[in-house]
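Project standup — Tuesday

K.O.: blocked on the structure for the chain from last sprint. Re-posting the sequence here as requested.
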Amino acid sequence: MKFLIGNSHGSRVLASNPVRSSCPVCGNEGTSVGVMTVEHLVTDRDLVRGEKYRTCMNEDCDVVYFDSDNGSTLTKNQVIVPIWFKRGADPKYACYCSQVTEAQVIEAVEHGARTVSEVNAATGAMKNSNCKKNNPLGVCCHKIIQEVLDRQELTKSPINPFTKQ
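H.V.: unblocked you, prediction finished:
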């Protein structure tokens, strides 16, 4: 959308509508995601009406995707997979392409896996990669698996209040 705006010198200039980068429902800053990802994961492709989609990462907001230009939103019930970063996701996938859950990653860690490579070997994560279509963020799940590893490492490291850290 284009519109005329005035400036301090009395002349008018043609300007573009500013890109909205926050969720229209909760105001959370959005993360860019490709339209191919959105089209692949929605229940009906006719719902996809734009090109500049963002993901709302707020776990309590029902909006998964919103369009930066036209303000349209796509909610959890309009997406065909549970969204790992939304409250109540079941199952909570760490790797969508191989359908490996966060619980399976945790189990691999409990059985000795310490790196993403070791988790992948134990669970089969990242073997069937087509992340642009399968992961709701349109990116590789390596970072998600690493975050689970980091959280597990923190829970395994008891802090002794009597020793200096």
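K.O.: great, moving the ticket to review. DSSP finds five helices and eight strands in the chain. Strands lie at 2-6, 12-16, 30-33, 53-56, 63-67, 73-75, 93-95, 100-101.
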